[in-house]
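Hi V.,

You were right to ask for the full record rather than a summary. Here it is.
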Amino acid sequence: MNKGYANAIFMAGILLAAACQKEKTTYAEPPAPVVSAPSTAPPANPGPVPRATSRASDGKPNAGFVMDPREEKKATDAAHAWLRLIDSEKYAESWTGAASYFKSRVDEATWSKQIQAVRGPLGALNSRKFKAEQYTTSAPGAPDGHYLILQFATSFANKANAVETVTPMLDADGQWRVSGYFIR
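Predicted structure:
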């Protein structure tokens, strides 16, 4: 990807995932797990619950924490649904379905224009395979919250080897929505 496309993503307000990207993918040290008093009954809406490790596509643990499997599924489902909108060029709908933080950083018209400039030249999606994930409660340039940073090895018609980073966050209403997107 040329620098113009990378700048377009940054200027579009997709700061979260872009801020986590460097020449080599690195993330800040994981936060300490939240410790709460033990309960005999599970809460009605458990929310993210840290565990000891995150995972990569090879099943090996990464440093960090992931959330309760039910919340992890909700977050990954939200990411996949959002990516389907992007893949089918429904950019305005992707903005509407994005996290409130995302929408506060970029308006719909700017987002649609910028994502078209980035995704259009790549062509149609050929394949997308899970690569890695990391749960975090803080991200550079973003408010504290619950984030799941997902990476996919992706192939497009005009770019055979790309890495997509999609970051759903737990929005104020308790729903997981995408707050960051980056293609490398």
